[in-house]
Amino acid sequence: MSRFHDPCEEWSRDRIEAEQLVALKRQLAYVGEYSAYYRNAGLGDVHSFDELPELPFTTKQDYVTAPNDFVAAPRTDLRRVHFSSGTTSSPAPVYWTGPDLDRWADLYARAAYSHGVRLGDVYQCLFGFAWFVGGLGATAGYQRLGCLCVPGGSSDSVRQLETMLRMGTTAVGGTPSFLLHLAEVAEREGFDLRGRGPRIVMTGGEPGAAVPGIRRKLEEAWGARAYDGYGSIEFQPIAWECEAQAGGHLAEDFAYAEVIDPETRRPVPDGTPGVLVLTHLDKQATPLVRWWTGDVVVRDSTPCACGRTMARLPGGVRGRADDMLVVRGVNLFPSAVEDVLRRTDGVTGEFRIVVDESLVDSATGFLTGIKLELEGDDALASVVAARIRAELTVRATVVPCAPGSLPRSTHKSARLVRRL
Ligand SMILES: [Zn+2]
């Protein structure tokens, strides 16, 4: 009997890789036969992981252009569809078969178990249910562990808080934006969550508990332990933190992960930042090979203090390869700015990073600094500017804005605005 949800969580590194290779060969044979997209791409056999980088990447653009070409299971085997929301394209369907849904629920149960959720817990799901992949996915996993589930969704803040106290909710999951918003409402409306509210908070959908400043803020506001979960619609879920809070454990039995240098497009060693590229090892409906997530991560394959052996992503998603700003040669992600803000006393409102012509050096075309719009007064603006300069070594012009004047988001926050 394993002390973890799934015995594979403590396989040796050799065993993980051996099982992955068997699964990879089986999966590539499957997609080569049943997925029109990969059949047309002419995927060859792969005999070792060293040969995988020879196969082409699959991008979001490839997917949304012809989503039905990726369907590898018969129509009558499909049980669920969610829609991938592209910013520049119409939503593309992503499918699950019955066994795919079962696998998803089991991985989510594994995640919840690693946060300390057990039979008898009450889970209030604060991810959206309508059109969003998070709500149903998370709920299925917690049900599997034996939790009483409250499908709350991501609105009706006061009702959510009342329900938490009435039902004795012990675990919640949601986007960090909504969870922080809810904590603000609790404070304002006089709900004292500390000691009476959930003991476990799981974030997903955007960089959350893996960012130290956000974790601290969530844990203080909720009086709970906060854990990061990471997934995308194409891969549900990908990685989640355990009680050691030392980086999300990758689901290495479900997906094979490569970390790729965005410039050279070759794999980088552990410890070096790169783009996470994933290949399904066990997906029937819309399997993907070398999926370019666009998310920048750092991998650590050494065993975790918790005893689990699946590789981790310390610090979670460091940023989007597309969002990365280069300011006078310094790589800067919006999440790093957010982290500084979350750790600065007095920052309570919204912010956004604006990139416009005034910041571009006309001689070199490089950015000379960043501009930050921040809810607060002049004094707070100078504190934040100094702190960003000290910690991130970039010049920041901080524009104070009236409280409540910047756009709120309870879902994926859009905090980088480009006006170039
Ligand atoms: Zn661990």
Give a brief description.
It contains 10 helices and 20 strands.
Describe, in plain words, how this protein is organized in 3D:
The structure is a single chain. The chain is of the alpha/beta class. It folds into 2 domains: 1-321, ANL, N-terminal domain (Rossmann fold, 3-Layer(aba) Sandwich), CATH 3.40.50; 325-419, ANL, C-terminal domain (GMP Synthetase, Chain A, domain 3, 2-Layer Sandwich), CATH 3.30.300.30. The chain is built from 10 helices and 20 strands. It has helices at residues 13-34, 36-41, 60-65, 98-114, 134-145, 157-167, 176-189, 212-222, 334-342, 378-392, and strands at residues 78-84, 92-97, 122-125, 148-151, 171-174, 200-203, 225-230, 239-240, 248-250, 255-260, 274-280, 291-297, 312-313, 319-320, 325-327, 330-332, 351-356, 370-375, 396-401, 416-419. It has an 8-stranded mixed β-sheet with strand order 4-3-5-6-7-8-9-13, with helices on both faces. Strand 18 (370-375), helix 10 (378-392) and strand 19 form a beta-alpha-beta unit. Helix 8 (212-222) packs across helix 9. The termini are far apart. The model has no long low-confidence stretch (mean pLDDT 91). It binds zinc ion. Zinc ion (ZN) binds at residues 242, 244, 246, 249, 304, 306, 308.
